[in-house]
Design goal:
about 140 residues, alpha+beta, binds coenzyme A
Length: about 140
């Protein structure tokens, strides 16, 4: 991607919202989204296309869990996941937890640059391949 496209797309307007029925059908075809469709979902579009989604649930009135954040591959490195994460964090008040694969450098950089703190590790939490999870926490107060 050229720097020009990256810079201009960062300026383009995006707003987060819950998915429509048609978008839920589209999400159901994405293997990493399909298992989570009975949770709360926020999406960002690029133009008319679903570009990025964030799946979350409320564990208690002031505790939340992010279950998945993903930007479709053709829209990556345009700032969409960061934007979606920020929009989500503005909507809730309390502690937010998530797990991320230890080797997922891109996601870890995103979360850590947004202020998530490492609070623990779950040994061999993931399978296929087996890998530890890093547990992160953010306080949206
Ligand atoms: C991780 C993911 C959601 C990032 O989405 P994105 O829309 O491309 O992210 P952004 O453009 O908002 O980037 C935000 C920051 O994340 C980090 N980042 C994103 N992709 C990166 C990469 N490939 N390598 C290193 N850092 C990366 C950077 O710090 C980046 O900030 P910068 O562009 O100012 O350097 C995306 O790569 C993805 O969908 N991965 C597969 C699903 C996944 O692993 N989800 C996380 C599950 S916990």
């Amino acid at each position: 991607m050229s720097l020009t496209r990256k810079a201009s797309s960062r300026k383009s307007k995006t707003c987060s919202r819950e998915p429509s029925a048609a978008e839920l059908e589209q999400l159901a075809k994405i293997p990493s989204a399909a298992p989570f469709l009975n949770n709360r979902i926020l999406i960002l579009q690029r133009g008319q296309e679903l570009a990025s989604f964030l799946v979350w649930r409320s564990v208690s009135p002031d505790e939340f869990e992010i279950l998945q954040v993903e930007t479709l591959s053709q829209f990556r490195r345009e700032g969409l996941a960061r934007k979606l994460l920020r929009l989500f964090l503005l909507q809730i008040r309390g502690n937010v937890f998530l797990e991320v694969r230890e080797s997922n450098a891109a996601a870890r950089k995103l979360y850590e640059s947004e202020g998530f703190m490492e609070i623990g590790r779950r040994g061999q939490y993931y399978t296929d391949p087996s890998e530890d999870a890093i547990v992160l926490k953010f306080c949206s107060c």
